[in-house]
From TrEMBL, chain A:
One biological process term in Gene Ontology: iron-sulfur cluster assembly
One Pfam family this sequence matches: SufBD_N
Family statement drawn from the similarity comment of this UniProt entry: Belongs to the iron-sulfur cluster assembly SufBD family.
Entry's transmembrane regions: none
Protein name in the entry: Fe-S cluster assembly protein SufB
Highest taxon of source: Bacteria
Automatic annotation (TrEMBL), chain B:
Presence of keyword ATP-binding: yes
Superkingdom per UniProt: Bacteria
Keywords: ATP-binding, Nucleotide-binding
InterPro entries: AAA+_ATPase (IPR003593), ABC_transporter-like_ATP-bd (IPR003439), FeS-cluster_ATPase_SufC (IPR010230), P-loop_NTPase (IPR027417)
Nucleotide-binding as UniProt keyword: yes
Full protein name: Fe-S cluster assembly ATP-binding protein
Pfam families for this protein: ABC_tran
Molecular-function GO terms, alphabetical: ATP binding; ATP hydrolysis activity
Domain ABC transporter stretches: 4-249
Family designation: Belongs to the ABC transporter superfamily. Ycf16 family.
Amino acid sequence: MSEEVEIRDAEARAAAARAADYEHGWSADIEQEFAPKGLSEDTVRFISAKKEEPEWMLEWRLKAYRHWLTMETPDWAKLDIPPIDYQDAYYYAAPKQKDALKSLDEVDPEILRVYEKLGIPIEEQKVLAGVEGARKVAVDAVFDSVSVATTFRRELEEAGVIFRSISEAIREYPELVKKWLGRVVPMHDNYFAALNCAVFSDGTFVYVPEGVRCPMELSTYFRINAENTGQFERTLIVADKGAYVSYLEGCTAPMRDENQLHAAVVELVALDDAEIKYSTVQNWYPGDAEGRGGIYNFVTKRALCQGRNSKVSWTQVETGSAITWKYPSCVLNGENSVGEFYSVAVTNNYQQADTGTKMIHNGKGSRSTIVSKGISAGHSNNTYRGLVRVAPQAEGVRNFTQCDSLLLGDRCGAHTVPYIEVRNPSATIEHEATTSKISDDQLFYAMQRGLDQESAVALIVNGFAKEVLQQLPMEFAVEAQKLLGISLEGSVG
Amino acid sequence: MSLLRIENLTNTVADKPILKGLSLTLNAGEIHAIMGPNGAGKSTLAYTLGGRPGYEVTGGSVEFDGQDLFDMEPHERAAAGLFLGFQYPVEIPGVSNLQFLRESLNSQRKARGLDPLSGGEFIKLAKEKAGLLGLDMEMLKRPVNVGFSGGEKKRNEMVQMGILDPKLAILDETDSGLDIDALRVVGEGINAIMRKPDKAVLLITHYQRLLDYVKPDFVHVLAGGRIVKSGGADLALELEREGYAEVLA
Ligand SMILES: Nc1ncnc2c1ncn2[C@@H]1O[C@H](COP(=O)(O)OP(=O)(O)O)[C@@H](O)[C@H]1O
Ligand SMILES: [Mg+2]
């Protein structure tokens, strides 16, 4: 017990030091190689050529681009989105790079300095890996769209796990990528998914072969660093029969006046008896206290629980971005497959979040659990939007949904929009929702014990979100706890 | 030397005057009891000293351990050594007692320029104080006051007091909700933690039974927002025997 507390303490301090330094309001001076400004077939060809992609990939992108041209920006979410000028952005930026890098020593020292300043723990991970018994975390560091460093690759290879940037995977494992890319999120799925298909610059590919338990947590840190550069990450994770993998994604962005678009696509595939645990801590720049700047985060995340007894668990802590539009979902095709969604979304100042999940029950005996904790402060708006759908053939489906909202102050909004479509009478669907405020009683009690107001708020909010936070891998949980407090600074009193 | 000197204190709650010129002095090493009818302003006094928002000070002064109390924020008063035992302890879902107390204690220590206690040191301290109050360590792992019985909450307040080790404890009806055995344990706990030459206690109570264990040096009667009568330990007995109306008549 006490030992555990001590370990957490040390980690908390490290995480706090990192988190407290969220004045990421600088921009690293790294030479960028930009795609031509604006969006056209030429831009798509430029990106594909830059990535040395095969012909089929270029065709795929062009098809998506042409389809995107026919689509309109969705406006159904409870969001107030200023129009985006797609011609006023760069769609590709790569750090200058000579040849493929053998080790971190070869990474541009300027990039390493940026990571150090951000506290992104590549160095720390290496140390961790050297420490006997320490949990190993592989880091595929994505810097401004292009993978510049990949560690722990050998150990993963020994286990048969493929962990690559998506560009590398397209070149090295074309059959695997072709088989699954766009299978979970088709290119015509939605406006931002189509855009992503056309111009995605990089991202991550993971394949865990049959019966393999991935020997370490896989983690990718994303970061935006170039002015006016949309980020279009693409992640594809396939867990073959009986495989297990836990993937962590975290991101932070530097301070910017201009809004930046982030439109990632994440596709997960779980075959028979496979399990994928996908955790996210999202801390993109939220804009300033008056609502200027900040990231537009329009992400499409979906999992295909294709196999019998397959399981996918999404856990997300969303504290950043000016606007978030995101519904990590599970298509539960497999018999007795399981989908889980654990979410904490914090909005402060003028942030807007519209997030939730879709659980599509197609398989017999499939089960899903949804736990959503929304925390709103300032003038922000926080919406849970969720769908539970049970197909006619899906016997014996179960769903449990818990949506809790916590309000700080009286100028913010919390909304819960559950859609339930049940076409099989044997389903058991439970939905619970609560809305509460941080009480003056709680705040004064905590302050009378010695906590300043911000620590008291952080403590109470973390208690509220505990059910979700405890789903995170420990190294993320501690950081996420600090983040909640930091993102609510100045929200009370 | 006086630890707490209240002079002519007046306040309002929701624009309503409650304390109307209250004066009271506690010296280090003393235990004072405050008694008084319902609605007299006893809890208001405790909250006002704690710095609760909404308890507006409109006049008078309070000096605590040589400092102007009203210059300090609630958490700074705590760090300076002021502890409030709540009449109605508050629940904080999802936050364990241990986490709550460790953060509180370390934040007080930081304000005093001390290093934080490590996890191991803290657990040792918490075990000792929980033992003193007969509270199971398992209770301290549970969320703050959530699902605690009335008596357990009050015991928990005293464990908190033991861990935070204040100079001045203001205990608001800590005896209410306690059964006979718990009353003894709590009474002995207060003595063990607070009966020291450099500390003082302000005990708000309606009943003599707690004072049987924690023998007061002074007893005061608060009525209509003022101290209207003061005496020794005998005054409490007299009040219990004859009632406020009779004694104040
Ligand atoms: N939050 C409040 N709003 C309005 N009146 C209050 C509030 N709190 C206390 N009071 C009033 O102040 C007076 C004193 O209350 P209190 O200090 O709780 O008395 P006691 O603890 O002596 O029973 C009562 O008349 C009570 O109704
Ligand atoms: Mg009272």
